[in-house]
């Protein structure tokens, strides 16, 4: 192979951003075939300890890398030409398995691409790494009977989050610069924060959904990346109409450069008044807010006191009404023995009562009125809060075996009580961007959520751009995971 570095330089090449990678492909200092082989080594090596791959499609990737090298030579390269991409197992790729991490559906194979996969392929990207998710994507961690436990490259005893945890872990392990995720209750933002990534939950309609998901307005697909510039790059490729979707909005590309925040008013509430927020998460959040102040923003705390237990219950009921019980009703008692504990628990709940989508719409309106009164109506352009209350989360945490967690001396529900993401799935037209803020005392990344009013995507990207420029987080700049044996 040519142009392949060794030692520390190899890590630097492995962790190249897509933006830098494209520049090197264009100037000829690196080519897609050689680069793909570097990542293939990283992809196979991480599996022994991190276990973030549901499948590796290396020969398919190699063939596409050769095609990309030819296109660069001919001058026909496309916007993401030759860039390897991680695809969440839930996201359909024609011909790839799609069991949703369930032994019950182990033989299911996707018969068509998800619209965002079509967009990646049209842009010249190379999907080759299929990332793990929990069974039916209904857990905030990433483990299942089918795939086992996915571990955090930063500190392997701890959770990568979920349900896009395999995507977050694979990005942190350096197997590609871009990944897809999906978000029903924080499934992009939780692993983005716990793995040190940027992740974007776009407002519903910004990206084309899969056929049949048009009424799941709480759930969207979105990009996950190690750098802010890559998040812009990927979001611009993924966004906009697709022939398979009738709910997608027209789209104007996001800017690639943003000015400072002079005069912008930003509201924040660390945890909606929840007393269990760990001090290291709040410390890192306050450092990030100070960075935004240095960039010219006026940042002020507002008093939002939301019942996170109520929000989590109402959201989960709505998702069950539209999504979860669809699988449960078709599973026989014999097949139920194959389920992971948390999906078996949800199956039992499905037989006990009929959930409804209507309370989620009513509660979303209530939350919006509170935001209108205290944030948007007061002249604030953006809102910021932490992504979760704690990083002290075992990789194999089982909320059925341990229904509550002790966080800072407070008991919280083990399913959703430790995350601060679900409100914005009820407020599903709000754009929300997760950004890294540093490392916790456990060596696990921490993150924050940047929120704007309905369909104001550009504002959250402007704030995130300034956060990146402020440099208060050094993750994947000066700090990288050290992946050895399990702790």
TrEMBL record:
Pfam family, one: Amidase
SUPFAM superfamilies registered for this protein in UniProt: Amidase signature (AS) enzymes
Residues in Amidase domain copies: 42-460
GO molecular function: catalytic activity
Organism superkingdom: Bacteria
Family stated for the protein in its record: Belongs to the amidase family.
PANTHER family recorded: GLUTAMYL-TRNA(GLN) AMIDOTRANSFERASE SUBUNIT A, MITOCHONDRIAL, TRANSAMIDASE
Protein name in UniProt: Amidase
Species the sequence originates in: Glaciimonas soli
Organism lineage string: Bacteria, Pseudomonadati, Pseudomonadota, Betaproteobacteria, Burkholderiales
